[in-house]
């Protein structure tokens, strides 16, 4: 995204030797064990929003919007238009036509106004409470998505059938205006088992290399480099010694 900054929320024990413009590492205390990683991620998001609330009064009315994303995501188009096109939402989630897990937590957008941050924080706090009370025994990478869906479907007026159509919509959930964006555009994943990256639909703005697809990240970067002019794209590839990905 043009003129955007990257903030890496991480374990204080992590050693990131990054020296890039517009990239900041923000250590956040917490419990980063494998079985509690997704739980800690939500806690880190809440802590970050608390920090932003404190700084907001010092920035003299300057509004900065935020997008929380997984590290295996590549942004290939300007996402600022989300905040311009949909001006009434506080927090945005991505959805797919999946009965049991329609929401993916790899992409969460927050409007940077005081009201937006406060309502997004309250929403995520509810997700955290549901996760802690209902889904601690869920697969370590699914608990947050199940908790997100529980919070959404607990609203009596919410119609889950809306997830069957890849069309954006806004719904008031627990005091927060939630924008639902289709994964097909804002959280697209290459086909399962793809041996190579062969491109994507033209309207895709975010690519999510879930699970074993992480091996395609470098290949995708080379593909974009050779076929398109995406000068503002930042692709952060996290190296791992694993031969199999379990998340």
Q: Secondary-structure blueprint of this entry?
A:
Elements: E1 6-10, E2 23-27, H1 37-56, E3 66-69, E4 73-75, H2 80-85, E5 91-95, E6 103-110, H3 114-134, H4 143-153, E7 169-173, E8 176-182, H5 183-186, E9 206-208, H6 217-227
Parallel strand pairs: 1-2, 5-8
Antiparallel strand pairs: 3-6, 4-9, 5-6, 7-8
Helix pairs in contact: 1-3, 3-4
Descriptive tags:
single chain, 247 residues, alpha/beta, Spore Coat Polysaccharide Biosynthesis Protein SpsA, Chain A, five-stranded mixed sheet, two-stranded parallel sheet, 18% strand, globular, disordered C terminus
Number of helix segments?
Answer: 6
CATH architectural designation = Alpha-Beta Complex
Number of domains: 1
Q: Distance N terminus to C terminus?
A: 26 Å
Protein name: Nucleotide-diphospho-sugar transferase domain-containing protein
Organism: Gossypium raimondii
Walkthrough of the structure:
It is built from six helices and nine strands. It has a single domain, classed as Alpha-Beta Complex (Spore Coat Polysaccharide Biosynthesis Protein SpsA, Chain A), CATH 3.90.550. The two termini are 26 Å apart. It has a five-stranded mixed sheet with strand order 3-6-5-8-7. Helix 3 packs across helix 4. The protein has 247 residues and is of the alpha/beta class. The longest helix has 21 residues, at 114-134. 30% of the residues lie in helices and 18% in strands. This is Nucleotide-diphospho-sugar transferase domain-containing protein. InterPro entries: Nucleotide-diphossugar_trans.
Summary of the model, kept short:
This protein has 247 residues and is α/β, with parallel strands linked by helices. Helices cover 30% and strands 18% of the residues.
């Amino acid at each position: 995204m043009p003129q955007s900054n990257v903030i890496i929320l991480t374990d204080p024990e992590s050693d990131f030797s990054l020296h890039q413009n517009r990239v900041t590492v923000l250590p956040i205390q917490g419990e980063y064990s494998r079985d509690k990683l997704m739980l800690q991620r939500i806690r880190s998001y809440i802590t970050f929003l608390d920090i932003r609330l404190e700084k907001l009064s010092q920035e003299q009315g300057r509004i900065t919007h935020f997008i929380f994303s997984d590290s295996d995501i590549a942004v290939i188009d300007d996402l600022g238009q989300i905040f311009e096109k949909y001006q009434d939402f506080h927090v945005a989630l991505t959805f797919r036509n999946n009965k049991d897990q329609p929401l993916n937590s790899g992409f969460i957008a927050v409007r940077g106004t005081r009201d937006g941050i406060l309502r997004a924080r309250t929403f995520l706090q509810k997700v955290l409470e549901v996760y802690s009370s209902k889904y601690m025994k869920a697969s370590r990478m699914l608990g947050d998505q199940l908790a997100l869906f529980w919070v959404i479907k607990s609203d009596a007026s919410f119609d889950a059938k809306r997830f069957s159509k890849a069309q954006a919509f806004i719904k008031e959930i627990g005091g927060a205006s939630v924008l639902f964006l289709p994964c097909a555009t804002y959280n697209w994943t290459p086909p399962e088992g793809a041996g190579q990256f062969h491109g994507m639909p033209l309207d895709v703005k975010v690519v999510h290399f879930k699970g074993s697809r992480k091996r395609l990240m470098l290949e995708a970067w080379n593909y974009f480099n050779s076929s398109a002019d995406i000068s503002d794209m930042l692709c952060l590839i996290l190296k791992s010694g694993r031969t199999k990905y379990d998340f």
